[in-house]
Amino acid sequence: MTPDVFARKVGLVFNDLSLLRRALTHRSYVNEHPDVLEDNERLEFLGDAVLDFLTGAWLYNRFPEMNEGQLTRLRSALVRTEQLASFAQELHLGEAMLLGRGEEATGGRERPALLCATFEALIGALYLDSGLKSVNEFMEPRLEVATDVVLEGESLLDARSLLQIWAQAEVGETPRYRTVDFQGPDHAREFVVEVTIGSKLLGRGRGHSKQEAAQHAAAKALAQVDHGYFWVKD
Fold first, then answer.
1. From the candidates 39, 44, 103, 120, which is the catalytic residue?
2. Residue 120 annotated to the active site
3. 192 vs 55, 158, 183, 196, 211, CA distance in Å?
4. Which end of the chain is more exposed for a tag (fewer CB within 10 A), N or C?
5. In the 8-state DSSP scheme, what is residue 107?
6. SS3 for 185?
7. Which residue ranges form the domains of the chain, and what is each CATH number?
């Protein structure tokens, strides 16, 4: 699918089609085509920043009752790799990507990380071509639908899942859980679990199983995040 055909199919109008072509160009394609001077990585960087800002501003206005921590977690869910890859799949973006033969042979057109990166590059290109208003018009209906899905499912997500979504999107780390103590007889044992992100202790929980204690630790960590703290004191 050529860039101009892709633009027509998804309802985008580009004044400068070379921007769109660059957004669709993976570095593996550049490696095999010396006449192509630039891949989409700089546009990906820009699009990531635009999406963070636009999504945050949209959520701020859409949910005036939410506190900072709730807004942060919701934004993290909306701009995480899997969600942006889902947006890309809805657009059939994979069919339009310019990939090297090796990348295509190994399933690059369906790879979530690559779809996410290309979607970010597309947003960066749209921003440069037409400004933030056009990006907002393009993203707002998609954010509405995705937010409804996230909010519907969030009540079903446990504290550990919510903490992981936040940590991976905002800090680039995966929470780590460690059993630091247990007490009592076998039939009534109580465990103490700590959760850390990087080197920072965020929460400590107790429970009659390691899983229950970890959930309590994650809930305490989320409370710290809600209040803007990234550590707890004993």
1. 120
2. yes
3. 37, 18, 9, 13, 10
4. C
5. T
6. coil
7. 3-154 (1.10.1520.10), 159-226 (3.30.160.20)
In tens, the pLDDT along 128-180 reads 999 999 999 999 999 999 988 888 765 445 678 788 878 877 778 889 999 99
From the candidates 48, 103, 129, 194, give the one annotated as an active-site residue.
48
| DSSP string covering 13-55 | --S-HHHHHHHTB-HHHHHH-TT----SHHHHHHHHHHHHHHH
Strand 200-207: give its sheet, edge to edge.
176-183, 190-197, 200-207
Low-confidence ranges of the chain (pLDDT < 70): 153-158, 226-234
Q: Tell me how far apart the alpha carbons of residues 26 and 100 are, in angstroms, rounded to a whole number.
A: 8
Task: Indicate if 35 belongs to the active site.
Answer: no
Q: Is 178 helix (H, G, I), strand (E, B) or coil?
A: strand
Cα distance between residue 213 and residue 191, in whole Å: 6
